[in-house]
């Protein structure tokens, strides 16, 4: 009897549950009955995660040392956390990422502003705060408050989140206007300010700090509104398991302190390419270079370079710090990657002797691989630029120089072409794509300055040594003893 009652109750329960489910689907069509782990299971089954992103210095790009960028570092770690491979689609502007995630993607990671009401999208917990910043062309005076923006040609990126702060500002200043672009990136906005196509732009503070050295005529203004949270996007309607996994990963990263360390690595310092002033350089010249001068001279004898040039390159790379580490894990006095160290037979990148020897031989290998048509100082400067940005991106810049009717064998012309690798109009026509092309230009310029200073100090020492080695003969004439040759 009990069994019959149970079966009857089960049958009625099944009927009512089914009826309730149908009613809920009719009344509330947005409720999903998808198993919570369906999306995550699909990713594990196929063994890779597809991420829609964009190429920018704050997100993802291909550097000489391989893929890099703050969000790339997070994506890579998240893929490892899930135990799957990482498949990137970096063909997007910021406004095309969310549609791609809705239609076919697993994750959107492209400096996205957290927008909880976006249809078809769930956002993760916040990753970092992004502060909108007004930047403007140097020479426009009196840009101190929002009222000063009225009448200016202002640009910003659509779907980046900055337009929301501008709209809030517009409520108090109705005459305020701006243009939004879905085709440009931050570097291109700043380039338009530099060439006077725009008066100002609203970007994020960390983006300005990473790009400011490339655009010396773009001035920092003031903050626009409150910070905006950056988050990742996942498609809704496919279960919450993947979203929960992403949130656990980000929570663990925050709790371990690793997220703060990554933020500090990528955004805490914006002066890697800053030319170090004479006072600081001379201090390092006196306190650090003597420890490594013999190693630079030894490497110079092996490779045929001037030891002072190798020392200048080493200073630009690490300030002669054998324990230096970059955000991407490049380390040592000459900042060698693991693949480069392996290529030149270096086992311990933190050993100054190995690092200097390996860096000098790597520079020589680049120098020798350049086309024979590049000669003299042009060849040397292009080799140094390749040490920074990679040989592939240098060849892309030479191609751009040729397309512009310039001489691809001239450093002066290639130097003009390299920054264009930051603009989609140009890097889309190249083999290796986006690069922070302004960086090698500043890099080479700095090394040349450091070389000139070391050369000047060395020459002064020679002259001083000569005076110290003089004697006066019976006729009152100065006699110079032979000067020991430099090793």
Bulk shape: globular
Number of strands: 16
Unreliable residue runs? 1-32, 476-487
Ends: how far apart?
105 Å
Mean pLDDT: 86
> Per DSSP, what share of the residues sits in E-state strands of 2 or more residues?
5-15%
CATH architecture of the largest domain: Orthogonal Bundle
The DSSP helix count reads 19
Radius of gyration: 29 Å
Strand order, main sheet: write it out.
10-9-11-8-12
What is the count of distinct domains? 3
Largest sheet: 5 strands, mixed
Output the CATH class name of the largest domain: Mainly Alpha
Write the CATH fold name of the largest domain. Lysozyme
Which structural category fits the helices and strands?
Answer: alpha/beta
Helix content: 40-55%
Key words describing this protein structure:
alpha/beta, disordered N terminus, 12% strand, 487 residues
């Amino acid at each position: 009897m009990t069994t019959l009652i149970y079966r009857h109750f089960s049958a009625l329960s099944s009927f009512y549950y089914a009826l309730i489910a149908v009613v809920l689907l009719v009344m509330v069509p947005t409720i999903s009955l998808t198993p919570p782990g369906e999306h995550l299971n699909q990713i594990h089954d196929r063994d890779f995660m597809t991420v829609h992103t964009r190429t920018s210095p704050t997100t993802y790009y291909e550097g000489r040392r391989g893929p890099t960028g703050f969000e790339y570092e997070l994506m890579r770690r998240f893929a490892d956390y899930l135990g799957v491979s990482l498949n990137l689609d970096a063909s997007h502007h910021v406004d095309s990422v969310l549609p791609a995630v809705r239609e076919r993607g697993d994750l959107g990671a492209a400096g996205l502003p957290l927008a909880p009401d976006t249809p078809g999208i769930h956002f993760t917990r916040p990753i970092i705060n992004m502060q909108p910043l007004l930047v403007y062309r140097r020479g426009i005076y009196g840009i101190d408050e929002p009222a000063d923006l009225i009448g200016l040609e202002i640009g910003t990126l659509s779907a980046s989140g900055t337009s929301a702060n501008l709209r809030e500002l517009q409520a108090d200043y109705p005459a305020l206007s701006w243009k939004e672009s879905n085709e440009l990136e931050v570097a291109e906005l700043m380039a338009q300010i530099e060439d006077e196509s725009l008066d100002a732009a609203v970007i994020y503070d960390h983006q300005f700090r990473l790009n400011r050295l490339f655009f010396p005529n773009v001035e920092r203004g003031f903050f626009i509104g409150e910070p905006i949270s950056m988050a990742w996007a996942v498609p809704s309607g496919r279960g919450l398991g993947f979203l929960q996994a992403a949130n656990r990963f980000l929570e663990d990263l925050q709790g371990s302190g690793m997220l703060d360390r990554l933020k500090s690595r990528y955004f805490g310092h914006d002066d890697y390419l800053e030319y170090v002033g004479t006072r600081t350089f001379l201090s390092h010249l006196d306190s650090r270079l003597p420890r490594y001068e013999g190693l630079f001279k030894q490497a110079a004898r092996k490779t045929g370079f001037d030891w002072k040039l190798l020392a200048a390159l080493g200073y630009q790379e690490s300030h002669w710090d054998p324990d230096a580490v970059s955000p991407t894990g490049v380390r040592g006095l000459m900042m060698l990657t693991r693949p480069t160290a392996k290529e030149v037979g270096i086992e311990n990148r933190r050993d100054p002797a190995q690092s200097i020897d390996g860096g000098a031989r790597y520079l020589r290998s680049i120098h020798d691989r350049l086309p024979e048509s590049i000669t003299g100082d042009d060849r040397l400067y292009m080799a140094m630029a390749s040490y920074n940005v990679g040989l592939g991106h240098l060849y892309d810049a030479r191609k751009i120089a040729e397309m512009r009717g310039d001489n691809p064998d001239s450093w002066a012309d290639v130097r003009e072409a390299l920054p264009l690798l930051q603009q989609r109009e140009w890097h889309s026509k190249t083999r290796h794509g986006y690069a922070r092309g302004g960086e090698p230009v500043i890099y080479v310029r700095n090394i040349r300055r450091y070389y000139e200073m070391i050369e000047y100090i060395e020459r002064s020492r020679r002259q001083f040594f000569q005076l110290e080695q003089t004697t006066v003969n019976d006729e009152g004439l100065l006699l110079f003893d032979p000067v020991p040759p430099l090793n």
